[in-house]
Amino acid sequence: MCGITGYISKTNDANTVAINCLKNLEYRGYDSSGIAIFNENKIKLYKSTGKIANLCEKIKDIDTTSKIAIAHTRWATHGKPTETNAHPHRCKNITLVHNGIIENYIELKEFLQKNGYTFNTQTDTEVACAYIAYVYNDLNIKDKLKCINEACKNLKGSYAFGIIFDDEPETLYATRKDSPLIVGYGDNGNFISSDITAIIKYTNKYVILNDYYISKITCDKVENYDENLNLVNLEIKTSDLTYNENTKNGYSHYMLKEIHEEPTVIANLYKRYLDKDIATIDLKKFDKIHIVACGSAMHAGLIGKYLFETYARIETTVEIASEYRYKNPIITDKTLVIIISQSGETADTLAALRLANNVGAYTLAIVNQENSSIAREAKKCLYTYAGPEIAVATTKGYTSQVAVLSIIMINSLKNNNLKDTILKETATIENVLEKTIDMLPEYKNIANKIYEKNDIFFIGRGIDYALCMEGSLKLKEISYIHSEAYAAGELKHGTISLIENGTPVIAIATDETLFEKTVSNVKETKARGAYTIFITTKSLADNTDVDDFSDVKLILNDMSKINITHVVALALQLISFETAKLKNCDIDKPKNLAKSVTVE
Ligand code: F6R
User: For the residues 84-101, what does the mean pLDDT come to?
Assistant: First the structure.
């Protein structure tokens, strides 16, 4: 999703620093980029489609020294990813970068056109820029804080802006509503950024702007104003992230590196939270649980549903945040609302959290990004401590969410044999996951069998079905192979018509109570020509005729439901990775995708 950086420097390096910071936001996903600088007494704009490297190439021979720069990566929403539509945008004496969506831009555009404004792009951002120019020039509100405040009152939707006024080119203004923006305090100058990872090379000191707040930033001073334009003191936070130049650590891809981090991340989470008060929720206080999230985080929630319903016996529904926020959900004071988000900034998930907070629900967030909006606004937050996730497709982000949900469930169990067994087993999780990674040749073999296919089906029952949902999403997002996940018993109610000779069906059957049923479903697809890839555990495989109905099998060691869930998730991630690699896909930055989805 769009990324913003801005820097105002005591020296003339703002352009270089802003671009360096922008590169650290590449992981968010984008399709064009741009920068505005103040050089030779005027604001100059440079833009390019594609990678930031294209932008750098464009400006490499130009004298671009500047004290101030605002830079942007654009993930197209309104208008194609062209150079013209790329940010920064400029109107009259205003230049700005924007993250978010201005929902009433058509109305504002018509209004501005009647007032003599013309437009060159299809973007909502150009309209926002022109509207600020209108307030500044036509309404003659020359106090810049008042101008921004007044203009933003008439903008509907979400925004984070970095703004430069021509007549005050050594000051950077910033404001936000429902889109992330922080202000960084550096030794040689000050920053704005969509997140801390972008600027961590230069500073770990930052403030989070509240909605409607405005920052006035020069190279040696930051003033923050509230929505009534009163000067306020915001708490300066210190991030404990460290900057690491060689962030791939020798791996070919961030995704591979992040998969390899899973054993430690998961093991550390169990050590940190298992049987600890901080992660013990009195589930008995609630009569139902709503788990609300998007994408993979929602899939983690599906695993949570099975765990909470099976072991804690609490009715749990998993809700897609973009649906939940508009459906007037039935929330009572006995509803526990669990909000899951790696980034902590997903627009729909954040809106769902606010809705639940507004009706007085107890909200528990499971979040990776420290101090993100969701982490701050939930009544309680359990961090997943997965560390920065750079690959757009989540891996350790997702499995760490599953781990926290598992821990909440385990902590809610009374001390009994079941709990003892699970506790004993989770102590081995790091080793178990490392061994799972070691099975790479088997994943490569599966990838070889599927990478040239157009359609793939994943089937499973219970928790295995939830794992199929994530396995299928991972495969399609990074390898661009169409795939669908089905509850194994459901396929024959329609979709089985799509099974042809050679169509791969990946079946997961790790639950002994459902094993025979899933096997029957696999056989149904095999009878219709499917190429079957069967994933199960050793003891289950030993007691059946696996070789008769599987073209390829992946046999995992026997272990508890909790451990096997992590193992299967990791194995599916590696199968997707190897498949995408064979197809030469841009694995870390799949097309059209954004890491942090900060618009609806
Ligand atoms: C898929 C993926 C997305 C995210 C989803 C929610 O690999 O990464 O489906 O899971 O966009 O993002 P967060 O967890 O940041 O709210």
Answer: 94
